[in-house]
Write a structure and sequence with these properties.
Blueprint: H1 2-7, H2 9-12, E1 17-20, H3 28-38, E2 47-51, H4 56-65, E3 69-72, H5 77-172, H6 182-208
Parallel strand pairs: 1-2, 2-3
């Protein structure tokens, strides 16, 4: 019964279907249309239409509906078996191609995911390298600035030592610089300015060479 065959089609899942064109209560064309509705194109079995109706219209209608082969009655049994074998071989090759294609697609997806993960890792590594490079550049800049500050502090100390030394000596000589005179006032302002600058140099030295609290210190 064609109706019962259609109802059990998905359960049976045949490798090939042989149909007659004129059947009751539904025709072979109607069965073929229901097969097309129930199954995806990639899973449909090949269909051979067997019929005594060899009119061009019948053949055209069957081919348009999707039959794989069309054999007129009376049938040649050997031909039918050979055509069935050819269609089954083609179906098997097609299924193998589908399996290979699906496996290849999964492999491509896997490799793509791995490449994306590696790309993310490389991007993260590149960012870390950039950050490290930035830190190294900053450290080199600070080292160069410290070297420059050391040289400036040394040169300033040399000049300030002369100003403070001779200034204090002149202020201590009351005969040469009497108290209350303009010279004494000017010398005091010079010495005060020199001491302020000495403090500035001290802060500059702390920048390039911070004092270590564990470093022993004693008067010499």
């Amino acid at each position: 019964c064609p109706v019962k065959a259609v109802e059990q089609l998905l359960e049976i899942n045949p490798d090939i279907v042989l149909l007659d064109l004129h059947m009751e209560p539904i025709s072979g064309i109607e069965v073929l249309k229901r097969i097309n509705d129930l199954m995806e194109p990639g899973t449909r079995p090949p269909v051979i239409m067997l019929t005594a109706d060899t009119s061009p219209d019948a053949k055209h209608e069957a081919l348009a509906a999707g039959v794989s082969d069309f054999l007129p009655k009376p049938l040649d049994a050997v031909e039918v078996i050979l055509r069935i074998g050819n269609l089954l071989t083609s179906r098997e090759l097609y299924q193998r191609c589908q399996l290979y294609s699906n496996g290849l697609a999964r492999l491509v997806e896997k490799r793509t995911a791995e490449l994306q993960e590696r790309t993310i890792d490389l991007e993260n590594t590149l960012e870390e390298l950039k950050e490290t490079q930035h830190q190294v550049i900053q450290q080199e800049r600070m080292r160069a600035l410290g070297t420059m500050a050391s040289g400036i502090a040394h040169d300033l100390n040399n000049g300030l030592s002369l100003i403070l030394g001779y200034g204090d000596m002149l202020l201590a000589d009351k005969e040469a610089v009497p108290a209350g005179t303009e010279v004494e006032t000017y010398l005091k302002e010079m010495v005060l300015a020199a001491r302020d600058n000495a403090e500035l140099v001290k802060r500059l030295r702390e920048f390039y060479r911070p004092a270590d609290a564990r470093e022993p210190r004693q008067a010499v």
